[in-house]
Each structure stands twice: as structure tokens, then as C-alpha cells.
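Handoff note, outgoing to incoming analyst
You'll be picking up this chain. Sequence as last confirmed:
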Amino acid sequence: MLSTGLWGEEEAVKFLVSKGYTLLERNYRFKKVEIDIIVRKEHIIIGVEVKTRNNSKVVPAFFAINKVKQRNLIYGINQYIKRFSEPIEVRMDAISVMNMGGQIQITHLEDAFPAF
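Most recent structure output, in case you need it:
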């Protein structure tokens, strides 16, 4: 059985692929930074932070992406895009995966915080 976090990332990847995104990387690491998912849609590279919760009714999962985490994710995605020679647009998204007693609720925030 997968851990809660890995399960949430799997659900997020399935969701994104079903919406036409192309998976580029899972758990991309640069130094101490990890980006859960990197996808591409048309000419945009998107780093995605996934937050997974079981039966959470109190605090939305997105609140766990604080300013320090955002800064680290921005640093990581900017390092990742250096491998592309063509001009590329970049965006940082966040996905919340909630397991509400067997019902899966996925919320996708596009452009959740600035990538530069």
C-alpha cells in the first residue's frame, strides 16, 4: 500500500494526464528542493506541489505551502527550465487531494504562486 503522499501524487498525475498535460518528471530534485510533479501543456512547463489529506475538515491543504516552501519550489523550477533552449513559459500550480471516506476530491489551483 502506498503512503498517503505517494497515493496523492498518483491521483494528481492521473488527474493532470486526463486534462491533457504531459508528465515530464516525478519527484524532481535539485539540491534540497523537491518538486512533486513537472508537466507540460502546450508551451508551458508547470511545476506542481501536491498536498494530500485524509478526512481533513479543518485546514485546507494549500495552507501547508508557506512562503519558504514557495521560494524553494520557484528556485527548483527555475533550475529545471535551464535545460530548455527555446523560450518557455513557466507556471507553479498546486493540487490538493482529499480522501473523504473513500470519496476523492481533487482541487487544482493553476498559477498558485509566481514562478519567478
